[in-house]
Design goal:
With about 500 residues, the chain is mainly α. It is built from 18 helices and 4 strands. The strands form 2 sheets. Strands 1-2 form a two-stranded antiparallel ribbon. A two-stranded antiparallel ribbon has the order 3-4. A hairpin with a 2-residue loop joins strand 1 and strand 2. The longest helix has about 35 residues. The two termini are about 15 Å apart. This is Amino acid permease. It is a multi-pass membrane protein. InterPro entries: AA/rel_permease1, AminoAcid_Transporter. Keywords: Membrane, Transmembrane, Transmembrane helix.
Length: about 500
């Protein structure tokens, strides 16, 4: 990469180790940990298997992060995972990742987190509700509705994008403040839950028969619980992990800002390892607290928090239900505010990071050339606004669960391909400098590939997720003709072969 002239916009190395850790933890902790345990409990139906899902998710996430760090230390460039895939497999694979990142991965996460922010706002201001329809029409047999939740989600994305267009220092300041706040909030929820919220009836109910796996119906569906075992239990665990893996994702986003990080060869690896370890530990502890405070099983028609249990917490807001159980209605309001701050901070980190990948693609001649420009604040402003536009379009679906299913298959599939890249580069470029070598190689990266591939296969064959996963594959395949279009139209102007 050529050195920029002093008077030209260029990336500034403004992110230190603490900033980077806050970006990792802040991007990971969004809305998922406060919501998805309700759906997980309906999928597997027991306290033991709920904890297994989170422990397995924690292992997979940690294995991915400590393996991925080798690539981050080798190529500490703006673009992160896009660059790693380009170096290991070439431009086509890298483009398909970047294409999917823009269409559904990064923008889908931004949309899902923004929708969650809007839903939690409804705890404080009931006007924000999916039932509050602002506009409705029928287009060619498709019934389109626009709710107050979608409006607020779009306004949030636009607002955070505008803040990040002001420069990386603004984005990192927001992330440091909100990242620290959400870590403290999770720690306090754990402490208060253990000190004040222990429910001996719930503990007895949850742990007396903690391995009796059952499949429960979703809210609004009347069906008897279905005992599951063997392959059905394996599939249920895989489907349940869609939510837990989503909650643990975005640990890689710090890599997108490689050229804005101080001492990136060390900082990237350390921030991913430290940040992922902190979040994984907190997630497991918070789920233990859930099980110590609320019964797992409940009824969607129950009038009380305890009666609805974890499975049927209102709008799946398990953390809010725990806070209400411990501290009363005021606790629910406090938790709603903290979760709003958490989701705001998560989207700030994700929005800040993602635009750097599109910038790198455009520099390679594989995306719109205008996205390869930095604004006066030395950030890729046009890439930020392009990302904002598409994330807002995705918000129009308004379905949190559907967005998760679209996102997670593509996310994990590309993680698998990227970790395979470690093996490829060890063979093709054995002499390349590696400031950090993947811990436990080849066992740990190999285990990650095995477990993550199994997860992808489950999503492809499970009835509830197969349609979304197949659509995800189709979206990737649509990138093939687009790649050749961009390569032919813009590749030469970017100086690429």
């Amino acid at each position: 990469m050529t050195e920029p002239q002093p008077d030209q916009p260029h990336f500034k190395r403004a992110i230190n180790l603490f900033d980077a850790i806050m970006l990792v933890t802040g991007s990971m902790i969004g809305s998922g940990i406060f919501i998805v345990s309700a759906d997980i409990s309906r999928q597997v139906g027991s306290a033991g298997w709920l904890l297994v899902v989170w422990l397995l998710t924690g292992f997979i996430t940690m294995a991915g992060a400590i393996s991925y760090g080798e690539l981050a230390s080798m190529f500490p460039k703006v673009g992160g995972q896009y660059v790693y895939l380009r170096e290991a497999f070439g431009r086509l694979t890298a483009f398909l990742y970047g294409w999917t990142l823009f269409l559904v991965i990064q923008t889908g996460v931004i949309a899902a987190v923004a929708v969650a922010f809007a839903k939690f706002t409804g705890v404080l201001q009931p006007w924000f509700s999916v039932k509050h329809i602002l506009f409705e029409t029928n287009i060619g047999g498709w019934n389109f509705t626009f709710s107050s939740v979608q409006l607020l989600a779009i306004l949030l994305i636009v607002g955070i994008t505008a803040l990040n267009a002001q420069g990386v220092r603004t984005g990192k300041l927001i992330q440091n403040v909100l990242g620290s706040t959400k870590l403290v909030a999770l720690a306090l929820l754990i402490i208060f839950g253990l000190a004040l919220g222990l429910n001996h009836e719930a503990i007895q109910a949850n742990f007396a028969d903690m391995w009796a796996a059952m499949r429960y119906s979703a809210p609004g569906v009347s069906a008897a619980p279905l005992p599951i075992s063997g392959s059905a239990l394996l599939i249920a665990i895989g489907m349940a992990m869609t939510g837990s893996l989503f909650s643990s994702d975005s640990w890689n986003n710090i890599g997108f800002a490689g050229e804005e990080i101080q001492n990136p060869e060390r900082t990237l690896v350390r921030s991913m390892a430290i940040g992922t370890a902190i979040v994984t530990g907190l997630y497991i502890l918070i789920n233990v607290v859930y099980l110590l405070v609320l019964p797992l099983h409940g009824s969607p028609e129950a009038a009380t928090v305890a009666g609805r249990g974890i499975q049927y917490a209102t709008d799946d807001r398990v953390a809010t239900a725990v806070a209400e159980s411990v501290l009363g209605q005021n606790g629910a309001y406090v938790m709603a505010v903290l979760i709003m701050l958490s989701t705001f901070g998560a989207n700030n980190g994700i929005i800040l990071s993602g635009a750097r990948a599109y910038f790198a693609m455009a520099k390679d001649g594989l995306f719109f050339p205008g996205l390869a420009r930095l604004n006066r604040a030395n950030v890729p402003g046009r890439a930020l606004w392009a990302q904002c536009f598409w994330a807002c379009v995705l918000c129009l679906s308004g379905k949190y669960g559907d967005l998760l299913n679209y996102v997670m298959f593509a996310v994990i599939l590309f993680y698998v391909i990227t970790i395979i890249g470690i093996f490829v580069l060890r063979r093709t470029r054995p002499e390349a400098p590696r400031p950090y070598r993947a811990w436990g190689y080849p066992l740990v990266p190999g285990l990650y590939i095995l477990l993550a591939t199994t997860f992808c296969i489950i999503l492809l064959i499970a009835p509830d997720t197969a349609e979304f996963s197949q659509r995800g594959l189709l979206l990737m395949a649509l990138g093939l003709p687009v790649y050749f279009l961009f390569g032919r139209r813009f590749g030469r102007s970017a100086g690429q072969a």
